[in-house]
Automatic annotation (TrEMBL):
<dbReference type="InterPro" id="IPR011074">
    <property type="entry name" value="CRAL/TRIO_N_dom"/>
</dbReference>
<dbReference type="InterPro" id="IPR036865">
    <property type="entry name" value="CRAL-TRIO_dom_sf"/>
</dbReference>
<dbReference type="GO" id="GO:1902936">
    <property type="term" value="F:phosphatidylinositol bisphosphate binding"/>
</dbReference>
<dbReference type="InterPro" id="IPR001251">
    <property type="entry name" value="CRAL-TRIO_dom"/>
</dbReference>
<dbReference type="GO" id="GO:0016020">
    <property type="term" value="C:membrane"/>
</dbReference>
<feature type="domain" description="CRAL-TRIO">
    <location>
        <begin position="98"/>
        <end position="268"/>
    </location>
</feature>
<dbReference type="Pfam" id="PF03765">
    <property type="entry name" value="CRAL_TRIO_N"/>
</dbReference>
<dbReference type="InterPro" id="IPR036273">
    <property type="entry name" value="CRAL/TRIO_N_dom_sf"/>
</dbReference>
<dbReference type="Pfam" id="PF00650">
    <property type="entry name" value="CRAL_TRIO"/>
</dbReference>
<protein>
    <recommendedName>
        <fullName>CRAL-TRIO domain-containing protein</fullName>
    </recommendedName>
</protein>
Length: 300
């Protein structure tokens, strides 16, 4: 089992959280240890239908994102494994070292975390949706790689504590790409990002999207919950400078690659090479994730 390393934030028994607001029927103070023990016991009681990690670090991810509300944490944990079990095309065969397809897509710099966080410690995840040949790779291929990367990124303490800003870059999107975005696939895709991962989505930026992609963006907004809609920002395909300036209103240029008018090197420079090396160091975690899931017949 891969072990996640957390920052020097107290997680000992003297830390208490008032769960009166989270659980109306449970008003006493509970320690973090009590929360983790409760969730672990709940998992063990359901071993016939739920096959889950139960380390302190893993369970703490779901407690943090739900403000230590036990019932909400259990719902998020079930969703985490249910969406993965329902979508094997995205969550199986993702070895970043031995799977030739995953290695090829990684070299395209299709998606990566940018090196610097914001002043609020939000991490920035860049996805270049047109950065693959749709005659060579399918949307399921690149989505499988993107979720593999997302699984590794979510091991980071900063991801769990402060959350992500996501940039969806539509540069080089062609009709062959767009045809693969069926309503059913878009809905599953949005659900996985929004409901599966125990992280905070701070902002979602749609960058350089063509007018032909308008109906797909409508689907994104329709399937996302309302509070996520309030955090979506659109930088349409007009002039190159205006798009960059629009993005800079939300993300400082010092944090962005030069393709986006930023001060960092190109995405396809040493930045992506270093990122590939870092993700492959955590490849074992991806293999272990494939060994878990839920019995879909028993979980609604």
């Amino acid at each position: 089992m891969c072990r996640f390393v957390f920052p020097s934030r107290k997680t000992t028994a003297d830390n208490t959280y008032n769960t009166a607001q989270a659980d109306a029927d449970h008003e006493e103070l509970l320690t973090i240890r009590d929360h983790i023990t409760y969730i672990r016991r709940w998992i063990h009681q359901r071993q016939s239908i739920l096959y889950s990690f139960d380390t302190d670090e893993f369970l703490l991810r779901f407690l943090r994102v739900t403000d230590f509300r036990l019932e909400k944490a259990k719902e998020r944990l079930i969703s985490f494994w249910r969406y993965r079990t329902e979508n094997p095309q995205w969550f199986r065969n993702r070895d970043l070292i031995k799977n030739q397809l995953m290695c090829q897509i990684s070299e395209l710099a299709y998606c990566l975390q940018l090196p610097k966080a914001t002043k609020d410690k939000h991490l920035i995840f860049l996805m270049r949706l047109g950065q693959y040949d749709p005659l060579v790779y399918t949307i399921d291929d690149v989505t499988r790689y993107a979720f593999a990367v997302a699984d590794i990124l979510n091991l980071q303490p900063a991801a769990q504590l402060y959350g992500f800003i996501i940039i969806l870059d539509f540069t080089n999107i062609r009709l062959q790409h767009i045809r693969q975005f069926t309503p059913g696939r878009v809905r599953r895709y949005v659900d996985c990002w929004e409901k599966m991962y125990p992280v905070y989505l701070r902002q979602i930026h749609f960058y350089n999207y063509p007018s032909i992609f308008g109906p797909i963006l409508h689907l994104f907004r329709f399937f996302h919950c309302r509070n996520i809609n309030d955090r979506m920002f659109f930088h349409s395909r007009t002039s190159n400078d205006s798009m960059k300036k629009s993005l800079h209103k939300y993300i400082d240029p010092s944090l962005l690659p030069n393709e986006y008018g930023g001060e960092l090197d190109s995405v396809e420079s040493e930045m992506n090479k270093s990122f590939i090396q870092w993700t492959r160091q955590h490849n074992d975690c991806l293999i272990e994730l494939e060994q878990c899931g839920v019995d879909l017949k028993e979980v609604s």
